[in-house]
Amino acid sequence: MSEPVDVNPGVRLERPEPTIALLRLDRAEKMNALGDDTVAAIGRLLDAVSSDPAVRVLVITGEGKGFCAGFDLGLATEAPGTAELGETAAWMLRQESFASLVTRLRAMRQPVIAAVNGSASGAGLGLALAAEIRIAGRSARFNAAFVRVGMSSCDIGVSWLLPRCVGLSRAFEIMLTGRMVDGVEAERIGLVSEVVDDALLMPRAMAIARAIAANSSFGVWMTKRGTWANVEAGSLQAAIELENRTQILTRTTGELDRAADGLLARRKQRGEGKT
User: How far apart are CA 1 and CA 3, in angstroms?
Assistant: First the structure.
């Protein structure tokens, strides 16, 4: 059984296995909606995970029946610091704080797996999109919620990330209508890589995490960083230039030599390679 290693408002960090961290949104009574304190706590925990060399993969999920219902609309009347800064400046700081979760997740050296249970709405959709891998339980639902309450669906990176998952036309339709996308459709359009029964969601997420953690830590880090960089590359040649240099850099770890020595040893044991 995993034990919490940290407790914060609306979120907790667990270590189910030595190389895998699990960040669990924990406001089940509010479908894990995000408040200012929760966002700050998530940021602190992401920093802790990112700086821990033993952690190779991060899994994010929600407690109870929902992944994350997005911004807690009960806090919409006023942003922290309004009296001192004025309304516009206070709301801008709040917006930047929420959006920083997406850039923090992307900047981590560990790959992130979103195990989406139930609703991922608004900022919850943004968190899911920030993960490198998304898997969904059959209860999963996704939507760009803010357009339905008078705001823009262009929020915490969704307008950049969603078109890269599902294509521009589908992204526009999802963002402009604010409609729900269920798990079956999400898999069909590429929003998630697979859908599993809810009871199998965390076991499947952990299985993927173990498969990643079994690989070279530096190689995984460079794969994450290189792929994100090449999503924005201006040409195939620019992408290949980055790949070439990354391969030479990863070779300096000695992992390739060790893998080759192991392969040769196994072939020798089987009597292969004799002339």
Answer: 7
